[in-house]
TrEMBL record:
Residues 36-204 form the Carbohydrate-binding domain. This is DUF5916 domain-containing protein. Residues 232-808 form the DUF5916 domain. Residues 1-23 form the signal peptide. The keyword Transport does not apply. Keywords: Signal. InterPro entries: Carb-bd_dom_fam9 (IPR010502), DUF5916 (IPR045670). It comes from the Bacteria. The keyword Signal applies.
Length: 812
């Protein structure tokens, strides 16, 4: 009896060790590669020791997989590729979720995920996912701050197949070496983890145990050994394309066609050059434009594949906003200012054409990541005509411009990194140039319990032969492990800091200090899979002159029940009055707009997506104390899965703002005019996917955004105390704003990496002062505008140099 405590301690130690020890498995070289057909009947799989004994890591931790849902994975390789053969046992194979979707979209399906890390550095994984439908997904994953950055836009060409059998389902995968980056060593050990997700049971298992209470997934990789005498292949991939489009607008028809090519070239075993020659972005999805009454620029998501794929290095330091490339010309608005008597602008392109772009990126075995990006855009002109003589002239709105980004990122200790980033914008002639340099660090202790993050950035802008230098700095300390987590941080950016040429910054001349405290569970209770509470106080100042701006405190909670019903709430209150140094848009930094404090409260509920019908509801309310300002918002989004191959999601967003005080304009005598306004917004969004099979999909994306603004008859001027005085300004400033976009697309992957994409698109934009219209009247007014129609077809063909060599050999 007296040995029982000792035995318990030894048993507990054994369990903890088994959960934290790094597993290893051996890959076996084969002469004859298995056929990728979703069957494990090839001789290559015989006598291969499987990776097995998976452990649950979500929602519970450390529970062994059940006998009726075990997973065994075999790995073999040859001179060309590494192969995965997995038997995924399931005692109810007919109930395995089978919702089809597009590539890289993981819906309501079971899936197997294999993470390779050839450098075995615990920070950078290349992930290959096969869903129960057979649809593929792939991504790159890296550690970023307190989270894992997962780049689903990255894609490569690999092969897989699945089959459902009486006691589960089978996955076979072939990963060509061209899809991975590894050294030229004779004997190699790679990082490896294998994840299996059960959607019906809402459970996730991993081969090497993942401790969700600290660190990130890549740090919990096991190892794959036995890989010998493989050589990184010559990596040259061509993506030539041909595209054509027909446009109908205002009774006129125009057509365009283009050919071009994307290229991937392996400079060595770890570094890759990506280039796009004569790029075509005609089928890029619409931006979700909104009426912007605030002082800050609206940020749009990058949708061009070349700028989203494999950009994890270039995102370091948040200095690269790729939408700047090909954006509105620098001197777009100056064309109107250059007019002489009897002249008018008859053509003024709102975007700049990109001529070409290249990026080189990779990471050495010692953890040094190097990235270089360069793009060139062409000269852009507005055309001005004399209305009397009909003579035309050109006004340059953008010169020939070169953009480049350079990144050095040193990773170490499997959880830390230091980065140096430089961005540069050089414009030919009498245009502004810019250069920004940033040093960032992300340091964690050996046990992943604490982390310190920070950066220091300098901007240099040369305009009108005058150099302006600005600075930004950030420091944050976190305890990012365990149930109780906390942190403190500070951020400062001075009034001269400007990264707008190739970066994005919402505001400068600001200081902010904050703290956060949270409690989160990592083991389910009887009622909840997870829940989290947090409290986040903060205080904000203007940097120069140093003036108090606001103080706030935010409370948040989030719960997920055992039945996958999620709900949460948040509440934020301003502690005292708010001194807004931005709303007036004044060049004088001492000008501010003073308003009463207030609060914002919101809730959210989200039902179980595993069911055919599901929904999300998010109401929100805001009010200022002792003021008539109120704001109501609600988002309702039902979704229905008609079949496993056809689903539809509808989203309705309603907003109403009453008695908001906001800037209207600035008069010639520098009087800043404010108005009291009511704003109403209705947004309808419909998306739908119809999958004919895993390679062929039709999709619909529709959005109508309508917003109106109505001002009271009484306007105001902003005084030196930040308050409003009545003013006789009486211009009509009402707004009626509409955006209508519809995309209907068909995508067919007719060969690995090769696609045929057909697109029908129509769009309407309307901006006027008819804010009094009701919804029906507004639609009538909207459809009285000219509608733009576009029909386009694009063919992309994938050519791998290694396969092309065999074509020519066969012909010879």
């Amino acid at each position: 009896m007296k040995n029982i405590p000792l035995l318990c301690i030894l048993l507990l130690t054994s369990v903890l060790y088994s959960q934290n020890a790094k597993k290893s498995t051996n890959a076996q070289r084969v002469k004859n590669a298995p056929k990728i057909d979703g069957k494990l009947d090839d001789a290559a799989w015989l006598n291969v020791e499987p990776a097995k004994d998976f452990m649950m890591f979500e929602p519970s931790s450390g529970i062994p997989e059940p006998e009726n849902r075990k997973t065994t994975v075999k790995i073999v390789y040859d001179d060309k590729a590494i192969y995965i053969g997995a038997y995924l046992f399931d005692d109810a194979p007919s109930e395995i979720p089978m919702q089809f979707g597009n590539r890289d979209e993981i819906g309501q399906v079971d899936y197997l995920q294999v993470n390779f890390n050839p450098n075995n550095d615990g920070q950078n994984d290349t992930e290959f996912i096969v869903m129960s439908t057979g649809v593929q997904a792939d991504s790159k994953s890296s550690n970023s701050g307190n989270s894992r950055r997962k780049d689903m836009s990255w894609s490569t060409v690999w092969y897989s197949d699945v089959s459902v059998v009486d006691d589960g389902w089978i996955v076979e995968m072939k990963i060509p070496y061209a899809a991975l980056r590894f050294s030229n060593d004779e004997v190699q050990t790679w990082g490896l983890n294998i994840l299996r997700n059960f959607k019906k049971q809402n459970e996730s298992y991993s081969w090497n145990f993942i401790d969700r209470t600290k660190g990130n997934y890549p740090q919990y990789a096991g190892e794959i050994k036995g890989i010998e005498n493989i050589k990184p292949p010559t990596r040259i991939e061509f993506y030539p394309y041909a595209a054509g489009a027909v446009n109908f607008y205002d009774g006129e028809t125009s057509s365009i066609s283009s050919i071009g090519m994307d290229l991937k070239y392996g400079l060595d075993e770890t570094f890759t050059l990506d280039a796009t020659l004569i790029p075509d972005f005609g089928q890029t999805a619409f931006d979700n434009q909104e009426l912007n009454l605030g002082p800050f620029e609206q940020r749009f998501e990058e949708r061009r594949t070349f700028f989203t794929e494999g950009t994890e290095l270039f995102n370091k330091g948040s200095l690269f906003y790729s939408r700047r490339i090909g954006n509105r010309p620098t001197k777009y608005s100056e064309a109107e200012d250059d007019l002489e008597e009897n002249e008018e602008v008859i053509e003024n392109p709102s975007t700049v054409k990109m001529l070409n772009a290249v990026k080189v990126s990779g990471r050495t075995k010692k953890g040094l990541g190097i990235g270089f990006f360069n793009a060139i855009t062409e000269r852009t002109y507005a055309r001005i005509t004399d209305t009397i003589t009909n003579e035309s002239r050109k006004f340059m709105t953008e010169s020939l411009t070169n953009y480049n980004v350079m990144v050095l990122d040193q990773q170490f200790n499997r959880n830390s990194s230091v980065s140096l980033i430089n961005t540069n914008t050089f414009r030919e002639g009498d245009f502004r140039d810019a250069n920004v340099t940033g040093l960032t660090f992300d340091l964690a202790d050996k046990n992943n319990l604490y982390k310190v993050r920070g950066n220091f950035k300098l901007s240099n802008v040369n305009e009108f032969d005058e150099l302006t230098t600005g600075m930004s700095t950030f420091l944050n300390f976190d305890k990012n492990s365990g149930n109780v987590q906390y942190g403190v941080g500070a951020w400062m950016v001075d009034e001269k800091y400007d990264i707008s040429d190739l970066g994005f910054l919402r505001e400068n001349n600001t200081q902010r200090y904050w703290a956060d405290l949270s409690y989160e569970i990592f083991e389910p209770t009887n009622a909840f899979n997870s829940y989290r509470f947090s409290i986040n106080p903060g205080i904000k100042y203007q940097h120069n002159p140093h003036e108090f701006s606001s103080a706030d405190i935010e409370f948040e909670s989030f719960f997920v029940t055992i039945d996958r019903f999620a709900f949460g709430a948040d509440f934020t209150t301003l502690l005292g009055d708010e001194y807004d140094f931005r709303e007036a848009r004044s060049s004088d930094p001492s000008v501010y707009f003073r308003q009463n404090g207030g609060f914002q409260a919101g809730v959210m509920v989200s039902s179980d997506y595993r069911k055919k019908f599901a929904y999300d509801i998010r109401p929100n309310f805001a009010k200022r104390y002792d003021d008539h300002f109120e704001e109501y918002e609600v988002s309702i989004s039902p979704r229905y899965r008609f079949t496993d191959k056809f689903n539809m999601i509808y989203e309705l967003n309603l907003g109403k703002t009453l008695n908001e005080k906001g800037r209207v304009t600035e008069l010639d005598d520098e009087t800043i005019i404010f108005g009291n306004r009511d704003k109403k917004t209705i947004e309808n969004v419909l998306t739908s996917n119809l999958s004919f099979n895993r390679k062929s999909t039709m999709a619909l994306a529709f959005r109508h955004y309508w917003s109106t603004v109505r001002y009271d008859e009484q306007f105001y001027s902003l005084n030196n105390s930040g308050l409003l005085d009545p003013h006789p300004y009486d211009e009509n400033s009402d707004i009626n704003y509409n955006v209508w976009n519809l995309d209907l697309s068909y995508v067919w992957e007719f060969a690995p990496g090769s696609q045929l994409i057909g697109l029908y698109r129509n769009s309407i934009f309307d901006y006027n002062d008819q804010s009094y219209l009701d919804f029906g009247e507004n639609l009538d007014e909207l459809f009285s505008q000219e509608i733009g129609h576009n029909i386009s077809l694009k063919l992309i063909y994938y050519i791998d140099y290694n396969n092309a060599k065999t074509w020519f050999k066969k012909k010879a």
